[in-house]
Amino acid sequence: MTGSRTILGGGITIDLDAIVRNWKALDTVSGKALTGAVLKADAYGTGAKVVGQALYKAGARFFFVATPDEGVALRKALPQAFIFVLDGLVPRTARDYAAHGLMPVLASMSQLTEWLDFCLNQGKAEPAALHFDTGFNRVGFRMNEAEMVKRELEQSGFEPQMIMSHFACADQPTHEMTRKQNGLFQGVLNLFPDVPASLANSAGLMASKDYHYHMVRPGISMYGGRAINGRPNPMAGVISMHVPILQIKDARIGETVGYGAAYRLRRDSRLAIMALGYADGFFRSLSGIGGQIGGRVAINGRTVPVLGRVSMDMSVIDITDVEGLVQPGDLVEVLGPTIGIDDVADAARTIGYEILTTLNGRFPRGYVNVPDGVSLD
């Protein structure tokens, strides 16, 4: 493992081999479609530069980031990769995209006009993709703009690298919205029959080969998260997080725990205070208060509950039923083989995406199973 350690120990560990294995499994499922990789939000909190290098070595060539700044940073690590910027074209920055070899996913008539004007002035057709909004109501050309986009492209002679859209409900496999969006997307593609197409995120990739088209864009599934609700998650876990115990104490039935005296002990208990709070991304919604079931962590392979409110720097857990010696300095599993990211997400009433992109805080991040040639600098 690489990466610094705190004095007390603990930290976050990313298994690069697990990420690569997940990507290869998804690449197999995608069949003839190309398999890209979504590295936005610092590769969902796992480190875009390092993960990008590992995936490139495994055969990935197409990468998706959210912002141009993310693209610039990734370009330094992957000089030969194809990098799409999902946020589109930031006004008056076309020259910067081109300078770093970034392909904006153009999403409005103003973006398209600016990009075409830039290409005309340069005397060179810089590559870009087009995003059509098939019902999400985020970024993207409206469906009634498709004919206008086609005319603009025909007049300029510009050929986009790809036509894209994004599912709103693919994580709910029976949702009618997914079929509706796919139908609208096919209608757009009829106007651009020779342009490669991409629609499927992780859930779309797993749901049906009908959504694969020319390229799929997995994100959460590469990082071990659940992509489709109500189905077993086949992906390998890639992240573990351990934090130290600061103190252990015995407390009596009827005593309260944490801010607001919101949890009252129902038995004599042995409590451990761990060095983890909401400043580290351990959500306050993981508090165990009143009759509410809060988050759980693991010690010696046994899950134990959070008691009381999660505070900024510390949280209290009940270790009364843990067998064996537990003492200050021992590490608590917050994420790992016993506690998955979706276990934490379910307890916090959120999604695994938010857990991955938030659980960093003050703890160092290290890597295991680093492929040869991948730089950690």
From TrEMBL:
Keywords associated with the record: Isomerase, Pyridoxal phosphate
Top EC group: isomerase
Cofactor(s) required for function per UniProt: pyridoxal 5'-phosphate
InterPro entries assigned: Ala_racemase, Ala_racemase/Decarboxylase_C, Ala_racemase_C, Ala_racemase_N, PLP-binding_barrel
Catalytic reaction(s) noted: L-alanine = D-alanine
UniProt pathway: Amino-acid biosynthesis; D-alanine biosynthesis; D-alanine from L-alanine: step 1/1
Pfam family, one: Ala_racemase_C
EC number: 5.1.1.1
Active site location: 40 (proton acceptor), 259 (proton acceptor)
Residue numbers of N6-(pyridoxal phosphate)lysine PTMs: 40
Residues in Alanine racemase C-terminal domain copies: 238-368
Highest rank taxon of the organism: Bacteria
One GO cellular component term noted in the UniProt record for this chain: cytosol
SUPFAM superfamilies attached to this UniProt entry: Alanine racemase C-terminal domain-like (SSF50621), PLP-binding barrel (SSF51419)
Amino acids binding substrate: 138, 312
GO molecular function: alanine racemase activity; pyridoxal phosphate binding
Gene Ontology biological process terms in this record: D-alanine biosynthetic process
Functional note: Catalyzes the interconversion of L-alanine and D-alanine. May also act on other amino acids.
Protein family membership: Belongs to the alanine racemase family.
UniProt name for this protein: Alanine racemase
Origin species: Pelagibacterium lacus
Upper lineage: Bacteria, Pseudomonadati, Pseudomonadota, Alphaproteobacteria, Hyphomicrobiales
